[in-house]
Design brief:
Layout lengths: L1 H30 L3 H4 L2 H23 L6 H28 L2 E7 L2 E6 L5 H10 L12 E5 L5 H13 L12 E3 L4 H7 L10 H11 L11 E5 L5 E5 L6 E6 L2
Parallel strand pairs: 1-3, 2-5
Antiparallel strand pairs: 1-2, 3-4, 5-6, 6-7
């Protein structure tokens, strides 16, 4: 039993180290708050942890028999490691493709834009027409303003195509992205109180309960919804500087 526990411990330590390095790198680079919350990446991370920290080491515990020939034992453990690596690579690819690239203020909200939401054609157009905001493989998340086309007919065409033809929406067109600071006058006009935002009554009360201990006023128009794939969050702004004072989850 001592031999089995030692093999289990070593396998668990190795698996935890590799997983921590992978998840830590992605978290520090792309998924810091509120990225992990808005993309619901916690579900993928939980599956990875279940496979790499539970299934792999437990299988090693089961097959680590001291009476088994060393070559056979090494082969069995190698098979387990290969399965773990396949799962890890798949999970890492999923997280990489879904990494946040932009927090985009557009119209009346701030929306997260993930790498998987940008198609190659739009990326190529952005590289040609708006290279400062075109995404690259090494791009880290940026807060930007989606200016949109100046022509209202073109803007309407894009909106219709996004709904009827499953075409890209404005937040998926980096050629129209502008510096965050340039969008602040429009953002100020869109600020609302919590009660004016499209949250349920329960969510509104939850948010106000979280704002009060932080000294954030609940009766002033200082907030915008921050939305992604899962539950939204609330971005609260300083009314004087328009800097973000806090980002609060609604769950």
């Amino acid at each position: 039993m001592r031999f089995r526990l030692k093999a289990f411990g070593l396998h668990l330590l190795g698996s935890a180290t590799v997983l921590a390095l992978m998840l830590g790198g992605l978290y520090l680079g792309w998924y810091r708050w509120p990225g992990w919350y808005l993309t619901e990446v916690v579900h993928v991370a939980a599956i990875l942890a279940g496979v790499d920290l539970t299934l792999g080491p437990l299988l090693t515990l089961m097959i680590a028999n001291p009476s088994k020939p060393r070559r056979e034992l090494a082969r069995d453990i190698a098979v387990i490691v290969v399965v773990q690596l396949v799962a890890l690579i798949y999970g890492a690819a999923t997280l990489w493709n879904g990494r946040p690239l932009y927090y985009a203020f557009c119209d009346d909200k701030v929306e997260i834009v993930q790498a998987s939401g940008l198609n190659a054609a739009e990326i190529a157009l952005a590289a040609k027409e708006n290279p400062d905001f075109a995404p690259h493989w090494y791009s880290l998340p940026r807060w930007i303003w989606v200016a949109g086309p100046a022509d209202p007919i073109e803007r309407a065409r894009i909106a219709i195509a996004a709904v009827t033809d499953n075409g890209p929406d404005l937040i998926q067109m980096p050629r129209y992205f502008k510096p965050w600071a340039q969008g602040l006058p429009g953002l100020r006009m869109q600020l609302r109180t919590v009660d004016q935002l499209p949250f349920s009554k329960v969510q509104q009360q939850t948010l106000k309960d979280r704002m009060t201990p932080l000294g954030l006023p609940t009766d002033q128009p200082s907030a915008l919804p921050l939305v992604g794939k899962g539950l939204p969050a609330l971005a609260v702004f300083d009314l004087r500087t328009l800097q973000i004072k806090s980002i609060l989850p609604v769950d």
